Amino acid sequence: MKLYSIGEFARLLGVSVSTLRNWDKEGRLKPLRTPTGKRRYTEEMLFQALGMKRAERPKKTVLYARVSSAGQKNDLETQTEFLRQFAVSRGYGVDEVIADIGSALNDRRKGFMRLVSMVLRGELERVVIADKDRLVRFGFEFFEDLFAKYGAEIVVVHRDEKAAPAQELAEDLVRIVRHFAARLYGSRSYRARKLVRTVREALGDEANRSAEESSAEPKKAGNPKADD
């Protein structure tokens, strides 16, 4: 079993020797004693002390905003400002804003990785997002449970709304099809390109049809021109 002197232990924790002596006096972290009375610390005590150190730091509230492409930077600013106003209305002090650009299917997004790392280090009290899709497209409940295990709450402004734009959902579907087409036929094969093109065209037709339906004026009862 590896034992650390009080000086070594203090350096590992990033605290002073006097802090360790105070923790000993207060009964918060009792070291072992050598026959000559010197303090010695185990690795188990190191993990315990790291937890104590994290608990002493105030936890943060972070706003997380995301859009799919660089062309949506204005939307990203609007989303961030909306989250700020929501946080103020709830009385949250905002410690940091993380803004990401990338697909919700990409779990290697720079901001997302930073957010998860902060959670795993026990630094966050809450994360505020506009809707579930801003964080991840699939598996939101998994991340909600994971964050909760590390003491972080995910506050979703539009929890019951399907807020992702149709264009963004279509782009994600194309990414999924492209990925599996490449696995099946090879990324440069004609069949893979044709499948992706067919899906793009189908999604484009559906988007156009939806736009036409939403812009069409409803027929008025008793208006003979409505049936012309």
Automatic annotation (TrEMBL):
<dbReference type="GO" id="GO:0003677">
    <property type="term" value="F:DNA binding"/>
</dbReference>
<dbReference type="GO" id="GO:0015074">
    <property type="term" value="P:DNA integration"/>
</dbReference>
<feature type="region of interest" description="Disordered">
    <location>
        <begin position="206"/>
        <end position="228"/>
    </location>
</feature>
<dbReference type="InterPro" id="IPR051491">
    <property type="entry name" value="Recombinase/Transposase-rel"/>
</dbReference>
<keyword id="KW-0229">DNA integration</keyword>
<dbReference type="InterPro" id="IPR000551">
    <property type="entry name" value="MerR-type_HTH_dom"/>
</dbReference>
<dbReference type="GO" id="GO:0000150">
    <property type="term" value="F:DNA strand exchange activity"/>
</dbReference>
<dbReference type="InterPro" id="IPR036162">
    <property type="entry name" value="Resolvase-like_N_sf"/>
</dbReference>
<keyword id="KW-0238">DNA-binding</keyword>
<dbReference type="GO" id="GO:0006355">
    <property type="term" value="P:regulation of DNA-templated transcription"/>
</dbReference>
<keyword id="KW-0233">DNA recombination</keyword>
<dbReference type="InterPro" id="IPR006119">
    <property type="entry name" value="Resolv_N"/>
</dbReference>
<dbReference type="InterPro" id="IPR006118">
    <property type="entry name" value="Recombinase_CS"/>
</dbReference>
<dbReference type="Pfam" id="PF00376">
    <property type="entry name" value="MerR"/>
</dbReference>
<dbReference type="InterPro" id="IPR009061">
    <property type="entry name" value="DNA-bd_dom_put_sf"/>
</dbReference>
<dbReference type="InterPro" id="IPR048046">
    <property type="entry name" value="Transpos_IS607"/>
</dbReference>
<feature type="domain" description="HTH merR-type">
    <location>
        <begin position="3"/>
        <end position="44"/>
    </location>
</feature>
<dbReference type="InterPro" id="IPR041718">
    <property type="entry name" value="IS607_transposase-like"/>
</dbReference>
<protein>
    <recommendedName>
        <fullName>Mobile element protein</fullName>
    </recommendedName>
</protein>
<dbReference type="Pfam" id="PF00239">
    <property type="entry name" value="Resolvase"/>
</dbReference>
<feature type="active site" description="O-(5'-phospho-DNA)-serine intermediate">
    <location>
        <position position="68"/>
    </location>
</feature>
<feature type="domain" description="Resolvase/invertase-type recombinase catalytic">
    <location>
        <begin position="60"/>
        <end position="203"/>
    </location>
</feature>
